[in-house]
């Protein structure tokens, strides 16, 4: 660091000597090279982290590569993709992924908007209610899955079974009867707080005077919500949708700890299918082909997210 | 006859009651987990579930013998703090140069960094697994720390960048004219001025690393397995064990839950990549 300061000092002297007309030299300019020097480690690390594994995945997806049969690494071009796409689990994996992502998005955004608007009004214990509502987000995925599976959904000792019995109904074995729905409920429970957290924050910047003016002009609660609140929430909703999509496309721990993809392929999503190909059947080639399909899907969501965030970057003063 | 004021009060009470009901329903699984952790295994399995019972600390006292809790908790602590410290050391200089030496490429670089976050982990699971095998990093705390540093780095650079951006350049220039080196600028001027933001960045990294459950389940087995993996090992049932599962889960989640409560406002910025403030 000692060299850099002397360097910039001499630069400053040169600058002031060269242009005597300008009253003060801008001292930030001379260190531009330092700026790129400091950013290099992060960029390099992330570049390696992204490029190397991705290149390997692409390579693996084009060769025959099973850990059980070492040495037989022939180039097979798109055979792995063909096998992955025609696998019994593929259609189930894709449709379950889409159903999961879609349902969780609809539930979290709809309930998130409703709850945020509700708790945005003032009432007793607002702070505590907020803390209670966002808590599930901080529970680790393996804990929330197992708590729901064993303490809430369990057909004998679960809380829901007790409620069903109280009303004289036969308790449901959730994970056998509605496996995918059960997982959707757990995941929506985990992500609803995320939506609430973002929406509540966004609502705080909503113009109160504008609302008051609309009310004085005779606008009802519903039209205030529809014409003022909802447009104000458009961006946070977009952000929630895209960030959740990215995370939910690779949902894994919740399925791993509750159903293990079953019964059959009923709760197997793309991520779990690839995991079972890769680490249970040791078929690296096919798992890599599946991985690339997942990357393409995520990129579609990411493309739009980057645009929204990029826009935000330029909006900044 | 009700006046307008009374009407408003009734309205507020109704809204309050509804909000409280929803909040209590959504919080219930966590409350029930904590409650179950104080039951005996017999009470925990009772049908209908027992609400009134004689609380016991037995589960907490036997956790360590039964599942070697401290081993896993220590792994979680080492890995999440290691990844957070390493991430801060790499991210602060990067954010510093992006915030104060902005070039044409800065915006592109930032967005590109974020896009690495959008790469689904299953897409690179195989290569990472094989690289880890070759370098004997499988089931090591070092390996997991490296992964967590990398997956959190984009968010950390991004968050710190937005905090640094709010510091007026004049202050740094003043420090420079007083003869401060870059190192001094960062350590003595910038970090003290943004310590709130830096703390919430570190906290977010801690929370994300502590709760991460894809890489920890796939890359560790016993030696370096953190708490997420310990809890997952309870998914295969072996008799009556739900009170103990609840006790382990409560201990594993309590610190992060408290962190989350304390820093909820600041976390929004990081969680939304700065798009919501």
Largest sheet of chain B: none
**Based on the structure given, which CATH architecture of chain A is correct?**
Orthogonal Bundle
Structural class of chain A: mainly alpha
* Gyration radius from CA atoms of chain A, angstroms: 27 Å
CATH class division of the largest domain in chain B: Mainly Alpha
Task: Examine the coordinates and then state which fold CATH places here, giving the name of the CATH topology of the largest domain in chain B.
Answer: MetI-like fold
* Form type of chain B: globular
- Kindly report the CATH topology of chain A: MetI-like fold
The CATH C-level class name of chain A: Mainly Alpha
Order of helices and strands of chain B: HHHHHHHHHHHHH
The CATH architecture name of the largest domain in chain B reads: Orthogonal Bundle
Classify the oligomer: heterodimer
What is the H/E order of chain A? HHHHHHHHHHHHHHH
How would you name the CATH homologous superfamily of chain A? MetI-like
